[in-house]
Amino acid sequence: MPARQQLRQQVESHAGGCCEYCRMNQSLQGATFHIEHIMPQSQGGTDVLENLAWACPSCNLHKSDRTQAVDAETGVQVVLFHPRQHNWDEHFLWDEYAMMGRTSIGRATTMALDMNHIRRLQIRQAEERLGLFPPRDSTEIK
Ligand SMILES: [Zn+2]
Q: Cβ(19)–Cβ(26) under 8 Å?
């Protein structure tokens, strides 16, 4: 197997088939998820496992080459969620179908990646009917 394909499989397998930002499950999506460079190649990010995340097209396109965004609550620019350095549950939680930031990083990432677009909420509702939402190991507001 070519090295690039092997790397792709490693990233997907590590992610358990879910987007590492919004936790959407790939199984219901027509589009194949992307290999996302956490530190963009334009800023020196390389093709090493620690710099690659499994991302749905929407998260990948919204993140683009950004690594920082403003937390609207504090007005402070912070780093975006880093799937290899940060723990998802420390920064996000679910409020029904909406993804909420628990921290500055979580809030800035939720806004920057447009995590609560109406289509995303509809996908989460559809995933729920198939037992795919909320994703395993994530926290909900009860
Ligand atoms: Zn996503």
A: yes
Q: Which domain, by its residues, includes 73?
A: 3-129
DSSP letter assigned to residue 50: G
Residues with a beta carbon under 5 angstroms from ion ligand 1: 19, 21-22, 24, 56, 59
Asked whether residue 30 is domain-assigned, the answer is yes
Spacing, Cα 81 to ligand 1 middle (Å): 12
* Whole-Å CA distances, 116 to 45, 69, 104: 28, 16, 17
- Please count the structural domains in the chain: 1
pLDDT digit string (tens) for 7-34? 999 999 989 889 999 999 998 887 889 9
